[in-house]
Amino acid sequence: MKLVCIHLGLNYEETALRDEFEKKIEELFGPLMKEYNELKTLIEKIKQYQESHKISSEAFAEKISRVPEPCLATDTPVAEVSDSDACDNLTKSLQQAVALSENITHWLYSAAQTLGHKLLNLLHCTNVNPVEALKCFVNDVNDLKDTIEAYKPIVEKYKNEVVALAKELKVEFKECLGFSSKVQAIASKMLLKAQLCENYLA
Question: Source organism's superkingdom (predicted)?
């Protein structure tokens, strides 16, 4: 390791400082990345559920469309149950979550590029004379510190938004599942009655 440091023109202190900054960056972004990845997983889970629900609804609509008119139930309160806005709220929150996820993705990419560039800049100071190299190194270290400090409130803001939205999504997803279960039960009952009626007429 020492030979590598000497070859690059870095001493142990400089290398340790870079390692320390890399650790600080990991500590800064770690909590956000954890919540961000959990949100993305939740988004995919909800999307898969919505797609599955859409397919089930289309299949039910196709079956009920083939039922003779005299066998269509008129006393099944589907309209009353479907007045629930649980799944509408979920869809709106999901759109917000997708938008937030995309914003964070773009920002993280930009921040990673900026910090990566500044970390690499700690190496370029070795190409000038010792006095200037020290001044250059100190300036770059301070610049990196300032950048990390500037990112802290942004990271905290994004993390809080992700946590709050994920919590909201989980509640609305549960409510939507409950609503969908009720509708599914009513739809199954309606279809069963229709099929019994159809068999009777046949």
Answer: Eukaryota
| pLDDT tens sequence across 90-115 | 999 999 999 999 999 999 999 999 99
Residue 117 identity: H
Residue 36 has pLDDT above 90, yes or no: yes
Comparing 198 with 91, which gets the higher pLDDT?
91
